[in-house]
Amino acid sequence: MEDKQTGIFLTQKLQHYFSIPVWCFSCKKYISSELKSPSPYLCSICYQKLPFAEKALCPKCGLKHSLISCRSTWATDITQFNAIFNYQEPISGWISNLKYFRNLFAGKILQQLIANWFSQHQLMLETIDVLLPVPLHSTRLHWRSFNQAVYLLKKQQQLPVSSNILKRIRKTPHQAGLSKENRNQNMENAFRVKKSLNKTSVLLFDDVCTTGTTIGELCQVLKAAGVENIHVLTLARVI
Q1: CA spacing 20 to 30 A to 173: which of 3, 167, 182, 204?
Q2: Buried b vs exposed e over 7-46: b needs ≥16 C-beta within 10 Å?
Q3: Residues 5-44: pLDDT tens digits?
Q4: Among candidate residues 126, 222, 213, 229, the one with its CA nearest the CA of residue 174
Q5: Any bridge partners for residue 237, and if so which?
Q6: d(Cα 94, Cα 115) in Å, to the nearest integer?
Q7: What is the CB-side half-sphere exposure of residue 178 using CA atoms within 13 A?
Q8: What global pTM score does this model have?
Q9: Structural domains in the chain plus CATH codes
């Protein structure tokens, strides 16, 4: 029995040791006790250089403008828009590496940063019923083998995640490179609510918001399904 307990203890110690990196993923330098940051994967210097989004942004579209009211028609149904970062390096590179090259270590860094945001906004999240990741079409999901929006939410523990409510019913080309008009046409009738949604307040999550057309289309679908309050969170916002 004593040998078994000793083995369990050593296993736990080894798991703990190897689960905490001592080298900064960004600058590759050793993370000493003086250089620790809120992210176990980044030193404090690199963490402070991350392109965190400004706080004084439009609560509808997530951009900084001087208009009294937001003129972004896609954002009409949004109760509150939040972005954690601007879509800049190194965040933009880590997102691309995760989505297109399955760099899961970059994904783990992003997961932790998202979990930190959720921990810091617990009071706001108390009014929300469910967390909805933006869905992928089945063919793209098969090709990529995972939905990055679902994957990125795995470390947060504040809200239940439901990935079986929204469905992308039409395969659409990538939004990148399309004009604003073509982006809008590309997303028309691309989504539907897959099952009954008896929720008054939801948080819609996506990895990146560029023009807002994807989020805007989903908001229309959610409103038609009876959702009263639609909060939006993106890991990164193109500014």
Answers
A1: 204
A2: eeeeeeeeeeeeeeeeebbbeeeebeeebebebebbbbeb
A3: 554 444 444 444 445 568 999 999 999 999 999 999 999 9
A4: 213
A5: 86, 209
A6: 16
A7: 18
A8: 0.86
A9: 1-49 (no CATH), 52-237 (3.40.50)
